[in-house]
Design goal:
Blueprint: H1 3-10, E1 16-20, E2 25-28, H2 30-36, E3 50-54, E4 58-69, E5 72-81, H3 104-109, E6 118-126, H4 129-136, H5 138-155, E7 161-165, E8 169-175, H6 185-192, H7 194-208, E9 213-215, E10 218-220, E11 224-230, H8 237-253, E12 259-261, H9 266-283, E13 289-298, E14 304-315, E15 319-321, H10 323-333, H11 336-356, E16 362-366, H12 369-372, H13 377-388, E17 395-400, H14 401-406, H15 410-420, E18 424-430, H16 437-441, E19 447-450, H17 462-477, E20 481-484, H18 490-498, E21 503-504, H19 515-539
Parallel strand pairs: 11-12, 14-16, 16-17, 17-18, 18-19, 19-20, 20-21
Antiparallel strand pairs: 1-2, 1-5, 3-4, 4-5, 6-8, 6-11, 7-8, 9-10, 13-14, 13-21, 14-15
Helix pairs in contact: 4-5, 6-7, 11-13
Bound molecules: ligand C2E and magnesium ion (MG) (2 copies).
């Protein structure tokens, strides 16, 4: 479409902008220019699908739509001013869906099969309720919730329970008690199969929501998605809720306004997890862990300047198990403390061996938050450093961005302690966790490790490239070195080097390997250096 035509058509409507892929405004209609001034050619940062207060417009709902604009991908941004009820009228009125609305705790307690006889849990989630709230106002939203509650209650039996959960969700607990008086033959058959019964209730709930709701003389339509989980004596209420939520996500994925029954096998997953945990408890004693070392290279020269120690678990029963699976388990059940201590001992022992062989490598070691915050952490490191007499700067402690933030007020003390011991500190997986930039500014760390998820798309993905570039610059401005994780191709290597990243790690340079492989690599580097030096000598 010609921009002039579009301008004509939309001039009378709400404020509207077209943003190029890089966030620069390519087109703004009259209304948008009244609000933002001559905005074309400038960047505009607005949130996605949410309400916000805009001077001159009041509360507005921002919606974004992908369009093709002048042959390229772009976004159409519409700001819809919210009518009449644009300010929220005091605290929201609680819905009154009849006598069966119970607190959520009561609903969840009734799922405990040891005490109650319930057959299924339904999580009923209203489709796109936030849009109704934003466009029609909170008062309409609240009234809608009240009426939905009433309709839900009217489709259920007296012994079933309904509860509000969150803004737009209802929990429905179906009672397993027989109601002979109410029961037809069909009901009796369904009762023998709780999944049939729960499905029938879900259908009734969906049907009950089809007719419009009358609010202030207008008709409002709302649909719902429903996730169902059957109550099982082995599942505690929280797990049952998890199962129902997982079914709800599936219902939403499959197009909403439908129900899904949880079909996964959480019980099997739970018992498998317990079996792994039991083996994990014995793994240290049985000597089933070992460390693999992944080369860290200088991106400018491709020279190996360090390694990262990565734990491996080889159990006779399960074979090799990924740390991404067992480390979170060990973090949950506390085993991370003895396992982490073993990793530290082993890393420092190996680092000392390499040092004695003349290798100048920085050996990095991953540390979990519980270990980092443990009262003995610094003392233990001090002991190990004294035992192995490692020079300052030869060991690096890697802590994830999230762990550092979670350690809260203790972080600064621990980081200062690490520095005092001559250890380097790296912030791992940077970019995927939650950290505040102002906090980062005050942290005493030496290295920022850009998470591999921003490296995958390089060099072509402009979003990855801009994040990578921003993180690298941020590290440098804060006086830290930068390292990119997960480099798999020469093109990624080149791109990151050109962006000014110091260090890199990834399959392109070497997979995590046994110490012997690292030593072979060190020897070949030395031979290469010697060869070059000999050639130079011969040439002079
Ligand atoms: P991490 O510290 O971010 O380690 C990098 C992970 O990326 C390693 O996975 C490594 O094998 C993998 N990787 C490296 N280069 C590439 C690549 O080019 N492509 C791909 N696809 N992957 C690459 P790994 O060894 O499975 O470890 C996973 C995570 O487990 C680690 O992430 C770390 O958070 C944790 N972990 C590993 N060892 C330890 C340990 O000794 N202690 C603690 N607390 N956590 C550990
Ligand atoms: Mg790491
Ligand atoms: Mg990492």
């Amino acid at each position: 479409m010609n921009p002039r035509d579009l301008h004509g058509i939309l001039a009378a409507l709400e404020p509207l902008l077209i943003l190029r892929y890089d966030g620069v405004v390519s087109f703004a209609n009259e209304r948008a220019r009244e609000l933002f001034g001559p905005i074309e050619g400038r960047e505009l940062d607005l949130p996605t699908d949410s309400t916000l207060a805009i001077p001159g417009l009041g509360r507005a709902f921002v919606s974004r739509h992908a369009i093709n604009w002048q042959g390229a991908e772009a976004e159409l941004v519409v700001l819809r001013s919210l009518p009449e009820q644009r300010t929220r009228p005091g605290p929201r009125a609680a819905p009154e869906p009849g006598r069966r609305l119970v607190p959520m705790e009561t609903a969840l307690r009734s799922l405990d099969a040891r005490v109650h006889s319930s057959s299924a849990l339904l999580v009923v989630d209203l489709d796109r309720f936030h849009v109704i709230n934003a466009v029609l106002g909170y008062r309409t939203g609240d009234e809608l919730l009240r009426q939905v509650g009433l309709r839900l209650a009217s489709t259920l039996r007296a012994t079933d329970l309904v509860s509000r959960r969150g803004e737009d969700e209802f929990l429905v607990v179906l009672s397993a008690r027989a109601h002979e008086a109410e029961e037809h033959e069909m009901d009796r058959r369904r009762r023998r199969d709780p999944s049939l019964e729960a499905g029938a209730v879900a259908e009734r709930v969906l049907e009950s929501l089809v007719a419009p709701f009358e609010i202030d003389g207008s008709e409002v339509y709302v649909g719902a998605s429903i996730g169902i989980a059957l109550v099982h004596p082995e599942l505690d209420p929280q797990l049952t809720l998890k199962c129902a939520e997982s079914a709800l996500y599936r219902a939403k994925e499959l197009g909403r306004t439908r129900y899904e029954l949880y079909s996964g096998d959480l019980l099997r997953e739970k018992s498998e997890r317990m079996a792994i945990e039991n083996r994990l408890r014995q793994a240290l004693r049985r000597g089933e862990f070992f460390l693999a070392y992944q080369p860290v290279v200088e991106l400018g020269t491709s020279r190996m300047v360090g390694v990262e120690a990565l734990i491996r678990w080889l159990s006779p029963e399960r074979g090799l198990t990924s740390p991404a699976l067992f480390i979170p388990m060990a973090e949950e059940n506390g085993l991370i403390i003895p396992i982490g201590d073993w990793v530290l001992q082993e890393t420092l022992r190996q680092a000392a061996l390499w040092h004695a062989q003349g290798a100048r490598l920085v050996v990095a070691c991953n540390v979990s938050v519980a270990q980092f915050m443990h009262p003995d952490f610094l003392t233990r490191l001090k002991q190990l450093l004294a035992l192995h007499r490692l020079p300052p700067g030869s060991i690096e402690i890697e802590v994830t961005e999230t762990a550092i933030m979670r350690a809260g007020a203790d972080t600064d003390r621990i980081l200062a302690g690490l520095e005092e011991l001559g250890l380097k500190v790296a912030i791992d997986d940077f970019g995927v966790g939650h950290s505040s930039l102002s906090r980062l500014k005050s942290l005493r760390s030496h290295l920022l490790k850009l998470d591999s998820s921003f490296v995958h798309g390089l060099p072509d993905d402009y979003k990855d490239a801009s994040i990578a570039s921003a993180v690298i610059e941020l590290a440098h401005n804060l006086g830290m070195e930068s390292l990119a994780e997960g480099i798999e191709t020469a093109a990624q290597h080149e791109c990151l080097r050109d962006l000014g990243c110091h260090l890199g790690q990834g399959y392109h340079f070497g997979k995590p390997a046994e110490p012997e492989e690292i030593e072979r690599r060190l020897r070949s580097t030395r031979r290469g250096r010697k060869g070059r030096a000999d050639q130079q000598d011969a040439g002079t």
